Amino acid sequence: MPDMARLDYYWRLLATGASFSVFGVGALIITVSLFPAIHLFAANRGRAQRRCQYVVHISFRAFIWMMKTLGILTYEFSDTDKLPIGSGHLIIANHPTLLDVVFVISRLPTTQCVVKKAAWSNPFLAGVMWATGYIQNEDPLVLIDDCVRALQEGNNLVIFPEATRTIPGGKMKLKRGAASVISTSRQLFTPLIMTCEPSTLAKGQKWFDIPNRRVHFKISVGDPVDPVPLLMDGEQLSKSNRRINNVIEELFVTGIERHGRSH
Q1: Parent domain of 240
Q2: CA-to-CA dists, residue 117 to 6, 160, 163, 219, angstroms
């Protein structure tokens, strides 16, 4: 590796470690200072959660800006005008890296998000999960009820249908959760496609397993999809879920391929 390339590599390694330290400490500081004050003075819990969601939104925008400024990554958004405006909208996204949720929420001022159970036991993130009203994905039946209720109450909602990060080079495996929420709520959903080149922070990769060059994220927003034509009255949920997952997978695969052609 040439000297300049080696210097750039070690700088990005150091900056990545520093960024994740800032992320964790920052989350802890906000959790013990700002979030309790918001919940204390808000008129109701729903309003408090939305205000906390906005704080997370601003924090994630700042975090992405910091990582770009430090030379860790670059990124581009496209078709963001297709992002739904207002409340009660469902956004689904593929999940190639650990930073996906950061990029998504950086574009959505107020939204709930389905997050894996481990986040609730993480000392840096547990308070954020509670303050924002994010939804835990541990129990499938409870998850569906919580998600449908969130949409019916007018909340925006982000779901990753894979439920965990994609294994690099592996086949996309969609779980039933997102499809069940769509089938039950009959809610329009907006697909959001993300790619990261070269791969980093994917399933099985540690934060220090950084590539030899700066990574580039591409995030594009697709057209809203009406699931009603895909549903049949009286049909078993499992059948409608498979049909919806086939549509979601096609949207994700096509979008990822489009990203690749435009590099």
Answers
A1: 3-261
A2: 38, 14, 11, 26
The CA–CA distances, whole Å, from 169 to 33, 35, 98, 102, 224 equal 42, 40, 16, 23, 28
pLDDT for residue 4 is more than 90? no
Mode of pairing for the β-strands spanning 73-78 and 135-136: unpaired
The number of folded domains in the chain is: 1
Q: What are phi and psi of 75, to 5 degrees?
A: -155, 160
- Paired with 217 in beta bridges are 75, 196
> Contact at 8 Å (CB) between 143 and 113?
no
Half-sphere exposure of 36 (CA within 13 A, CB side): 5
Res 23 pLDDT > 70: yes
**What secondary structure letter does DSSP report for 2?**
-
| SS3 (DSSP) at 216 | strand
CATH code of the domain in which 199 resides:
3.40.1130
Q: What is the mean pLDDT of residues 190-199?
A: 95
The predicted-structure confidence for 27-76, as pLDDT tens digits, reads as follows: 999 999 999 999 999 889 999 999 999 999 999 999 999 999 999 999 99
- Total-model pTM: 0.93
Task: Answer yes or no: is pLDDT of 1 > 60.
Answer: no
Q: How far apart are CA 187 and CA 183, in angstroms?
A: 8
Q: What is the DSSP letter of 228?
A: G
Using alpha carbons, select from 218, 212, 215 the residue that is nearest to residue 260.
218
Pairing of strands 215-221, 189-197: antiparallel
